[in-house]
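[audit] Reproducing an earlier prediction to check determinism. Same input, same settings, fresh worker. If the C-alpha cells differ from the archived copy the diff job will pick it up downstream; this log only records the rerun itself.
[audit] input (510 residues):
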Amino acid sequence: MDPGSPTVQLVDYLRAIRRRWLLIVLFVVLVAGTALARDLSTDKQYDATSQLLFRSTDPAEGLSGASSGSADPEREANTDVELIKLGSIAESVRRRLGLAVSTAQLLEQVRTETGSNSDMVSVIARDRDPERAAAIANAFVAAYVDFRVRSSRASLIQAAELAARQLEALSPEDRAAAEGRALEARRRELEIAAALQTGRVQIVQRAATPSEPAVPRPRLTLALGAIVGLLAGLVLAFALEFADRRIREERQVEEIFELPIIGAIPPGPRRRDDDSVQREAFSLLAANLRAASARTSRVVMITSPQPSDGKTSVTLGVARAFARLGLRVIAIEADLRRPGFGNYITTQPSVGLTGLLAGYGTLGKELTWLDANTFEPMTLDSSRDQLALAVLPAGELPQNPQHLLSGAAMAEVVQEARAHADVVLIDTPPTAAFSDAVTLARLVDSVTIVARIDKTTKDAARRAMRVLRGVDVGFDGVVVTDVRVEAHQYGYYQAGPAAQPRSQQQVSHD
C-alpha cells in the first residue's frame, strides 16, 4: 500500500489518537470543566421577547394623498430597526418603568433580531429579574410605536393647520365658493389621516415572563466545551505526533530502514536474562541470523543509529542464544567510546581489545568465558562439552579510537576470531555520532541494526542507513528492542515461568 495514500494517512491519524487518547480526554475534561465552572459562577439572566411587524404602506396614505414608499426598501428597513434603540426611546422607557440604570446601560440590555425573509422584528430584553425583562421588552416596543405614530402624524397635523389658517384668511363669500369648500375638505381629510396614522408598525406579540434563564445554560455550555476541548485535544495530539520524530511502531521500522525485522526483543532484566519471553526472542533472532550466516555471514557487526538503542544487550543476548545452540561464539566489544559489556557481565582482568590492538597479549588469553545459562565467568575444561561463549571486553579506552580500529591489527583480531568461532559478533558505537561503525563494517560479513521503540528517531535511522549503505556490506535486517509482547507470543512451547510484568522489569540500554 502506498504510504502516502489517504487510507494510510487515516490509519496514522487513528494511531495518533490511540497513542495520545489520554491527552485528548484531559483537554475535553479541562475545557468543558472550565467552561461549566465559569458558566455556573455567573448570575442567571432572563430573556423576554416582544415582536413588531413593519408594513410597507400605511392605511391612511390614501386619505392624505402622500406616499411613504422608498426607492431603497432594504435601507429603510434597516433604519427602522436601528431607531428601536434610539436614545430618546430608551430614556422614555427608563422613566416609565422607574429603572435605576442609565440610558446607556439600559440599551446594553436590549437587542434586536430580524428575519432574513420576514418583516418581523424581535426586541429582546435581558435582565436578572424575569418580570422586569418582560416589562422592559414591552415598554420598548410600546415607546417605539408611539414614536413612529407621533412622527407620522406630525407632518399631517402641520398640513391641516396650514389649511385651517388659509381658510381663516378667506372672506365668507370665498369660503362658500368651490375653492373654499375644497380647502375645507382637504383640511378634514388631513385631520382624519393624522388620526388614523399607525407609523407602519404594529405590535404583534408582547413579551411574556420567561420561566427559564437564557444564561447560564449548563448543558449547552458543557456540550460546547466538550466539543472545543475535543478539537483542541485532537489538534495538539496531531501536532505532537508530527513533531515527535521517534519511531513508535514496528511498521515504521521497516518503512524507514527499508530492511526486514529479524528480531523483536521485549524489555527484560538488566544483568540476568532469565525472562522466558526475552530468552525466546533472542533464540528466534539467533535462528534468523544463523540462517543468514549459513549463506554468507560468520562475522556480524551489531550497531544502532544512536546511543541507548539496546545494541549491547542484543549482542550479548544473541551470543548466549548461539551458545545454547552449541555454536562457538565470540562477542567483541569494539565500542571504545562508551563500552557497555560491564553493565551486563562480570569480566576477568584483561588488557581487552585495546591491549590486543596495541600488541599486548593474544586473543585466546584475553577472552573471558561465560556460562551460557548463568552468564557467570567460568573456566573451560572442555569447551566443546559445555554451553559457553567467549567475550573480548574493550579494555582501557584509547584517546583516538578511530585510529586504533582502522589499523591492520583490528583486521587481524577479526580474522583470528573468525578462525576460532562459528559466529563472531562485534558490538560497535552508534553510527549517529561516530564513524567507527563504518570502519569496522569493512571487516565483517554482514550488519545487524538495532532500533528501539519510542527511543530511536527517524532522522537518526535515515542517517545511519545513508552512512552504512556507502559500505559494500550486506544487511541481515533490523532488531527492534523494547517491544511490548505477551508471553504466549514466544513461550508457547516453553514450560518456564511466564514473563514478568513490565513494571517489574528493567529496561535494556546499551
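[audit] rerun output stored. Observation attached for the diff report: The first strand starts at residue 46 and ends at 54.
[audit] end
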